[in-house]
Structures are given as structure tokens and as C-alpha cells.
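ok, trying the design again with the full structure, not the truncated one.
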């Protein structure tokens, strides 16, 4: 089937500082979007951590960040979206218009209903600096308890909390990082060169970053994933050009490995076990998070991993989940747990078994799993988890001839 290249749709068309709205083409990266809004003292309500994630990608595939506990997910800031549907029409989807069904089914559809060409999104005002506090916990139960209190109070130690995420280094070393807007800063740190942001969480109690550096604090080392490429070795890092300390550079290295399997061949030659890719983000209800984390720490040898609280901004839509393809419950606090690495395939196990066990544990803890990476669900279970009925209706209306892949084929069958 001939493809249609929408790659040219990558500009910010306008920023309205009074209405606090941006009119943006679908393939615009958040790096460009933030660069266009910050001069107006504004930012998107949720800025995914990696600079090259696009607005259309984050809306159709669910991004998340440290403002998600108060702003929900990127698609909840969308006022309208122009979609090129599988049927070849361009429709304007809004919350209450004639294409409201597409508006609601678009998040988590991963481009299988249509492509977002242009979106109008809400922005929020920024201050010049973010004041960070890193709270250390000796166990995850203590961390989730304090997290619950902060989510209820939106403040800690008398200071408002505007940003909130967490890092678990091990069962006895976990942190919540609280960020607060600040008009001034005694000094600011720089983690775009030799110093590494995630290491600072362990060594500092507080910190100040410019808003720009705060938004991109995770990109330089792709959280901690740059260590797989040697970029955290001080000797290599000194030689590594600063402009290449970026998540998209590591991403390209992964593509090269996927193509040529150099590391896998070296591992095999050295007699190391085969590795299974475990790259997942899952949302667990806050009340079940401590249990899930205890299970994860026991069963899955991936450290560190990331935590990010999230609560939908949108209320119930006529008693239905507002976003049927990713049915988080309105009014409920969830914690996104993100882990991105590989684990050894156990003797007698199949590649995929670790991911399957995680899928089961997520279900047991009443959670949801994002679909951007590998998924192994049987088809009937998949549709019961990801809004099968709403998806079928939207697919029938917007892609009746199946020009675009089906969500199951794309997310699970990896077609
Ligand atoms: C390795 C990896 C790391 C990630 N890390 C983070 C993270 O740190 N923070 C975070 O918030 N999220 C993260 N994500 C999730 C990410 O936000 C989603 O996967 C998002 O869909 C990626 O968008 P993209 O612009 O990079 O698109 P791509 O990766 O190019 O595409 C992702 C999917 O979206 C579809 N798509 C892309 N653009 C459009 C459009 N305009 N209209 C309709 N469909 C479209 C594509 O067809 C594809 O199915 C990560 C994903 C991966 C694979």
C-alpha cells in the first residue's frame, strides 16, 4: 500500500499568549514546541521528557511527565485536532462536535484511525526556575504513603508542589523529586555536559534548574539509559560531543543494534544468556502501587526505574471513561512505573515471558499498560482492556476499508 508522508507537518503555526493556546502541526517535536512557547512565558501542560517526541505522537500514544498529577496526559490539553483519517478525509475532531467519537478514541490509537495534522492545545504559564527537593525513602511503602499525602495537599513542608516524579534505585533507596516554580534561584545546576542529572538525585537534597533545563533534564542521558552506550563513563563522556548527549542519538544507536545485532553477537560469544527487551510504562492505582513495586523489586532485575503520578484532568463523559482506548478512571490517582532495559531469559523460558508476567502483574494490581513498546496479550483480552467496542465503532466510521493497521496488529503483532 502506498504511504503518505506527513513529515512536513512540523511547525508551530501560532502561539496566542492571551488565550494561552498554541496551534501546532502534528509532527512538531516537543523541542520545537517548547522553544516556541517559552519566549511567551508559557509551556505545554505536559512536556514528555524526550525532545523528539512529537505532539501528534504523544496525543495518539500517551506521553506522561511530572505535571501529570495535576494536568493529566498530553491529549487532555487538546481543544481540537484535525485528523487525516484512514478514509482519506480531513475532519476536525473536538470534544463536543460531530467527530467527538474520534476525539475520544484518538488517544492510544497509535495512528490506526488517522493522522493528526494540526492541533490546538492549551498552555500554562511558567516561572524562570524550578526548585527541586529530592526526598529519600528507605522503602517503597514509605514513599507511596508520602506520595499520597503530597497528592492530596499539592504541597510539602509549606511549599507548593508543581512537579512530581520519583526514582527507585533499589528496594532500600528510592526518591521523590518535588519541583516548585521559583522566580529566583541562588544558582543553577547544569546537567547537559559532564554532570548527570539522575546521579544528582542521590547526592543532593535540593537543586535549582532553569525551566528549560528542568523540562529536558531527562533527555541528556535518556533518564539513565545512556550508560548502555558508555556515555556515563567519565573518560568516554569527556570525548562525547555535547550535541550528541541526546535521547535521539541513543535511539539511533539502538536502531543500529536492532539491525546488526553487534552487542547480541558479542554476548553470545562470551556465553552470556540471551536478553529479553523489557521496555514498559504501566499505570498502577496509587492504593496498589506499594504492592506492585514490592513484586517488581522481587521479580524483575531492572534498576533504576521511574515513577510518575498521574490523574486524569477530564471527568466522566456521560458515565463512560473519557478516553475509552486507555480507560483510566477519572478522579483516581495512578502511578506510572517506567522501566526500560533488558533481563536475561531464564533457562527453559521463552523470549517474552518476563513481559507476559509483568502484564499479568499489572492486571492483578488493576493497572494499565502503555502500548508503545512490546505487548503480548491474546486478542480477546487485549480488546477488553483497550476499549474494543469504542475502537470498532471508530474504525468502522473513520477507516472502513482498513487502509491503516488495526490496533491489535500494530501493538501486539508488531506489523
Ligand atoms: C523508547 C521509547 C521511549 C519513550 N519514552 C517516553 C518518555 O520518556 N516520556 C513519554 O512521555 N513518553 C515516552 N514514550 C512514549 C511516547 O510518548 C509514545 O510512544 C509516542 O507515541 C511517541 O511519539 P513520537 O512522536 O516519538 O512518534 P513515533 O514513535 O514516531 O510514533 C509512535 C506512534 O504514534 C503514531 N503517530 C506518530 N505521529 C502521529 C500523528 N501525528 N498522528 C497519529 N499518529 C501518530 C505512529 O504511527 C506510531 O504508532 C517512549 C516511547 C518509546 C518507544
Amino acid at each position: 500500500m502506498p504511504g503518505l508522508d506527513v513529515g512536513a507537518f512540523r511547525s508551530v503555526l501560532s502561539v496566542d499568549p492571551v488565550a494561552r493556546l498554541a496551534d501546532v502541526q502534528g509532527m512538531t517535536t516537543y523541542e520545537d514546541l517548547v522553544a516556541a512557547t517559552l519566549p511567551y512565558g508559557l509551556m505545554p501542560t505536559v512536556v514528555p521528557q524526550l525532545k523528539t517526541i512529537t505532539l501528534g505522537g504523544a496525543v495518539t500514544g500517551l506521553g506522561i511527565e511530572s505535571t501529570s498529577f495535576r494536568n493529566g496526559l498530553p491529549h487532555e490539553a487538546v481543544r481540537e485536532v484535525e485528523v487525516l483519517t484512514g478514509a482519506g478525509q480531513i475532519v476536525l475532531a473536538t470534544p463536543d462536535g460531530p467527530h467527538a467519537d474520534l476525539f475520544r478514541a484518538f488517544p492510544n490509537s497509535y495512528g490506526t484511525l488517522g493522522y493528526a495534522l494540526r492541533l490546538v492545545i492549551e498552555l500554562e504559564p511558567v516561572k524562570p526556575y524550578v526548585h527541586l527537593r529530592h526526598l529519600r525513602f528507605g522503602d517503597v511503602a514509605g514513599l507511596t504513603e508520602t506520595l499520597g499525602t503530597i497528592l492530596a495537599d499539592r504541597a510539602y513542608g509549606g511549599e507548593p508542589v508543581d512537579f512530581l516524579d520519583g526514582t527507585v534505585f533499589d528496594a532500600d533507596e528510592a526518591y521523590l523529586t518535588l519541583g516548585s516554580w521559583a522566580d529566583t534561584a541562588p544558582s543553577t545546576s547544569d546537567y547537559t555536559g559532564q554532570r548527570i542529572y539522575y546521579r544528582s538525585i542521590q547526592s543532593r537534597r535540593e537543586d535549582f534548574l532553569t525551566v528549560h533545563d528542568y523540562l529536558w533534564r531527562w533527555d541528556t542521558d535518556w533518564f539513565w539509559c545512556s550508560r548502555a552506550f558508555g556515555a556515563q563513563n567519565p573518560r568516554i563522556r569527556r570525548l562525547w560531543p555535547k550535541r550528541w548527549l541526546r535521547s535521539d542519538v541513543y535511539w539511533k544507536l539502538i536502531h543500529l543494534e536492532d539491525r546488526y545485532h553487534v552487542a547480541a553477537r558479542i554476548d553470545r560469544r562470551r556465553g552470556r544468556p540471551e536478553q529479553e527487551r523489557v521496555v514498559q510504562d504501566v499505570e498502577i492505582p496509587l492504593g496498589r502501587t506499594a504492592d506492585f513495586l514490592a513484586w517488581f523489586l522481587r521479580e524483575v532485575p531492572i534498576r533504576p526505574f521511574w515513577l510518575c503520578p498521574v490523574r486524569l484532568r477530564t471527568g466522566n463523559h456521560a458515565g463512560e471513561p473519557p478516553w475509552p482506548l486507555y480507560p483510566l478512571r477519572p478522579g483516581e490517582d495512578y502511578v506510572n512505573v517506567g522501566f526500560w532495559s533488558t533481563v536475561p531469559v531464564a533457562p527453559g523460558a521463552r523470549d517474552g515471558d518476563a513481559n507476559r508476567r509483568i502484564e499479568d502483574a499489572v492486571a492483578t494490581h488493576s493497572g494499565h499498560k502503555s502500548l508503545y513498546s512490546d505487548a503480548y496479550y491474546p486478542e480477546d483480552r487485549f480488546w477488553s482492556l483497550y476499549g474494543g467496542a469504542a475502537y470498532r465503532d471508530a474504525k468502522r466510521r473513520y477507516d472502513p476499508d482498513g487502509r491503516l493497521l488495526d490496533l491489535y496488529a500494530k501493538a501486539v503483532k508488531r506489523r
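Keeping the full-length input from now on. The radius of gyration is 21 Å.
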